[in-house]
C-alpha cells in the first residue's frame, strides 16, 4: 500500500471509534516503507498498533525495532512454528531458531523496561500455524514462551487455500484431529507447569479440542471480523474480513478507500446488509474463521 493512502484513511478517521491499526497480514510489515510513518501517526493519535512479524526484525535489528514498536503496540505477535531448529526452518525456510530466540529476548527486555518506567503494556505473543509438521512441538513452544516471558501463544489452524496444504492440516481426518486433541492436552499441561517469570500462566488462545469429524469439527460461532474490523487491501479496496473469498469479491463489492471515504463505505447499505445477514451468506455459512483458530 502507498503510505499516503494509509495516512489518508487515518486522517479521515480522526475522532472516530477507530482504536487499533493492524499493518498487513499478507507479508512482513517491518519491510513496508510506510511503517515508520504509521508508528508515528499511531503515537500522535493514541491509536494502538497490532503487529504480526516473522521475528527477523529486518533492516535495523530487534533492539531498534523494539524501541519503535513497544511504546505504541498493543501486541507484537511473532510467527513461531517450531521448538526445534529443524521444524522452525522447515515451516519458515531460512529461519534460524537461535537468532529468533535472541530477538525475542531483546523484545521482551524492552517491553519489561518500558513497563517498569510506567509505559503502556505491550503484549508479546507467539502466533503458531498448527500443522502436521509442528503438532508434536506445541507444548515445547509453550514452555519456550514461558521461559522467554512471552505472554500468549495463539494457535491458528493452517488454512488449506492450496491443494498442497491439505496434507498438512490437522483437521483433515479423525486421526489428524486426534493428534491435535492430544496436543491441546499437552499445551494445557505445559502452560500449567511452565510459568512465566512473573508466576503467571502463558495465555493460550484457540487450544480447543475438536470433534473427530472433519466435516464438522466444531460449531460455528459469531464472525470475529464483520462489522468490527475494516480490511483495506493495498489498492484501497475495502473488505469485511480476511477470508480469501472476500478479497476476490465473493462477499460483494464494497468499494475502495482510494475513491470513497471509509466512513461512507462502512455506512453503505450493501455493507450493513452483510453485517446484519452474514450468517445466511453462502461463504459465511461454511467459514472456518467462525471456529476457534480457524478450525
Ligand atoms: S467469510 Fe467468514 S470471516 Fe468473512 S464475514 Fe463471513 S463469517 Fe466473517
Structure, briefly:
This protein is an alpha/beta fold.
How would you characterize this protein structure?
- This protein has 295 residues and is of the alpha/beta class.
- It has 11 helices and 8 strands.
- The protein has helices at 3-12, 35-44, 61-69, 85-91, 97-116, 138-148, 174-193, 244-247, 262-266, 269-277, 282-285, and strands at 20-21, 48-53, 73-79, 123-130, 152-157, 203-205, 231-232, 238-239.
- The strands form 2 sheets. Strands 1-2-3-4-5-6 form a 6-stranded parallel β-sheet. Strands 7-8 form a two-stranded antiparallel sheet.
- Strand 2, helix 3 (61-69) and strand 3 form a beta-alpha-beta unit.
- Helix 1 runs parallel beside helix 2 (35-44), helix 3 (61-69) runs parallel beside helix 5 (97-116) and helix 6 (138-148) runs parallel beside helix 7.
- It starts with a helix and ends in a 10-residue tail after the last helix.
- The relative contact order is 0.10.
